[in-house]
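Example (one chain per record):
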Amino acid sequence: MPKHRQSKFRPYDSGRRQRGMATLLLVILVGLAMTATAFGVAHAVRSTQEGQLSLHAVTPAQDGAWDGAEAVRRYLQKADESTLAQLSGALRITGSTLTANVVSVVKGKDGKGRNTYRITVDLVGSAADGTAAASKSVLQAVYDVTPQPGSGGSTSGLPNQPTLINTINIYKDLNLTGGIKVLGGNNANLNVQGNVTLDSASVDGINTIRATGNVTVGSGIHVNNIYANGDVTVTGAASADLISALGNVTINGGAKPFAVQSNGTVTFNGGSATSVDAIGDVIVPAGGVTISSIRTMGKVVWTGSGGSAGTITANGSVVYAGGNNNTKITAIGDVKLTGGGATTVITQGNTSMENSGSVGQLTGQGNLSVNTWTGVTGTIGGTLTKGSQFMSANVTVQPGLKVDITPVALAKLPAVTVDKPAIDAYALKDSANYAFDFVDGAIRVTVSNVNGIDSGTYYLGWYPQANGRGYQDFLCTKLVPGTLTSGGKGQCMKPTTPYRTICQAFSNQNDCLSYSNGAWTLNGKSFARGVLWFHGDLNPSTGYYLDSFIATGNISTSGAHRTDAPNYAGYDQICTNATPAGLATGSGLTDQQVADFAGVYPSNFCDMANKTLIPNSIGNVALLAGGYVGDTFSGGDINVGASSVINGSVMAGNTISTGGSTNINGYITAAAQNTADTKPVSLSGATLLDYSKLPDTYQPGAVPCMKNCNNSTQATNDNLSTITWTRYL
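Predicted structure:
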């Protein structure tokens, strides 16, 4: 009987089957593990991508909020006063995902008694709506709005509308030295197309500096707000409430804390701050510095001791040697503590502790190095290293710990822009009541819109003495042949009897206007009221003038000089020839001289029926110099000499300078239209700029349009609307 051979192989086959099953199970388990790993990696990559998208979306959201801030400013610039007073709730911004909500409207008064409105608006910008990377940015902006006469509807494009200017407008570098005092609170604003230096001086009362270049402030000077397209440097005991710079900010001292916003690096070599927002780094090498809040897209290098920070939030690394005054540090980069430590540290990088500082609560994704005996409590994702095994470190090591930190995302600050009016004396000749030319060796005066004098062109001459008085600087239509002097005056032939004089000398035996080598000189008590235009340079010296002085060349005042622009002087002095204080009859002005001006007044300024001034923007100007012949500019320098008082706007086509004991009670413009002159504007000596008690008839922000007068940027009655404060919510 044959043997059964299957049983011989049965044990072998069973083992093979078992080993095959184990191999299969191992392959399945490895596959499952790889699948889980793949899903984990995909999820991590997706989360990282979404996080990166969210980070990229933050800046567009903030840019949108800033765009909205400018859109609202322009809206407030055009709104009428009743609309401003009733603003509340949401503002509709068409064609945009931006939302704006009016938080508050506070009505006040400026130094002239005009209504002002401080309007607070929350603006919400958004980006990537409807996606995982959606983000929003909330910006709160505070606006100061001053309604202007005739505002509330654009009048742009119409001829003869005024151009609007701000308080002090300099279109080249500006140096303020000596004793400069500005009165008028929020009205005292400097707009500079160039660099600004306030140092080696006593400067008081400036509200806001807006400069397209760099700004340096020293000598204990305080400025409320500084906006610069370049760098800002504060030295000594100088200070500011807000510094906003597209460049770097350097604090070398400071009498009070600052709020700093910078597109660059902020360095503290002294001083303190309430808040610092910087796209660049924040560097603190000085000791004793205190900063309540730091937010930076760069790193923080705080090596100075003796001070402290409240909160530090950085996209880069943080080195902190300051004290632990409830300090909270959040950093995407490494954190190194070399001083008093911190209450809280949150970091995606490594943490190192040196010196004597402790950490109350640490959450660190990386490693921890401890070289201090003061202790640390918290959780880390990396390794723990101690300089001594006895050093205290109550730390939990959680491998792979992920720390979630929202990066700092700061929108770039908007650039300062300074609108520039064109100054051209030639464009204003037809608006003058009295226009002076030197033609064929004679002084000629063109009279327009003057009550009591027929419009036309006259010679300036004299009549023989009679009736116990002289007749100097009278108007006549014909001169006696052969009497013309080198100064351009001759004896009047027609009319045969004295017609009208246009100035008041120290006595009726003296003249008060002379001409020599292209320059006009006024030297007397006063002049006929109105707008005076001169072809050439002008030197008004001693006297009290109620006029607008306009010269195609340069203007330089001297002696005990005072000028009141017509709108500043008011109706009585301009239209009724009321004797101004300081020019009383008892001071030497005779009754005959007063009678010479009887019934003479600028009819384009005087509403005699209603006893008011007729609105006329040229009457806001006290001094205006410089003009174009073709495309060539000449003149334009104004020097306000010592002991001069100017009440009205001062408009220099090129530059302005001041001497000692100088008062300017009006807006100032130095247009820098002479491109060959690169010297800075210098306001020095004892100069007082007073905007606190300007009369209602004087509208300093409105000046006559002199070029491109049909252009909407030149012709407007818009409100004055400025952003005075911003913050992220």
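Caption: The chain has five helices and 65 strands.
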